[in-house]
């Protein structure tokens, strides 16, 4: 990437493949950043030692893969709200869900989880994506609400050491998702992507 490319910023989102990539990358970022930053904050001066422990490294690996489907559904709901607003007569959710599941399926089964748990996580992701269509679009800060406890419970820190950190996790997810949402709005090329939703047809 050259200097001019850096200043141009990220490219516009002009097709469904780019939407899927956006959801994937931001879901992974949202979940992993929270896991690592929380763990470092709780470990304090011992963070370097903790992150060097094989047992902790395994716990982080398990946590990040279990959190990844949560990130997918959270970011997908934020993206779906934007697309539903832009294309109110199209069946946005089925097409978006198809691409989000395809993103999930691109990854090999994580060794830290195993195939059975990975299949369960995929099934849960499919179910949760379908639930998005059962209500009007939410405010962005409200989207993570139903998943915060599940995410917080995945933190690779013993529950006795977590203290009263749940509100911090809530604020983190809300703030980060607002940034992700704004980036999607700014990068979305609605005119370019419109034909994809036109092919899906009206509701």
Structure description:
With 203 residues, the protein is mainly α. The chain has one domain. Helix content is 70%, strand content 0%. It contains nine helices and no strands. The chain starts with a helix and ends with a helix. The N terminus is likely disordered.
**What fraction strand?**
under 5%
Number of helices: 9
Instruction: Name the poorly predicted regions.
Output: 1-7
| Rg from alpha-carbon coordinates | 18 Å
- Our measurement of the CA-to-CA distance between the termini, rounded to an integer number of angstroms, reads 42 Å
Main sheet: strands, sense, barrel: none
List the helices and strands and how they pair.
Elements: H1 3-8, H2 16-43, H3 47-51, H4 54-86, H5 92-105, H6 115-131, H7 148-153, H8 166-187, H9 190-200
Summarize the structure.
The chain has 203 residues and is mainly alpha-helical.
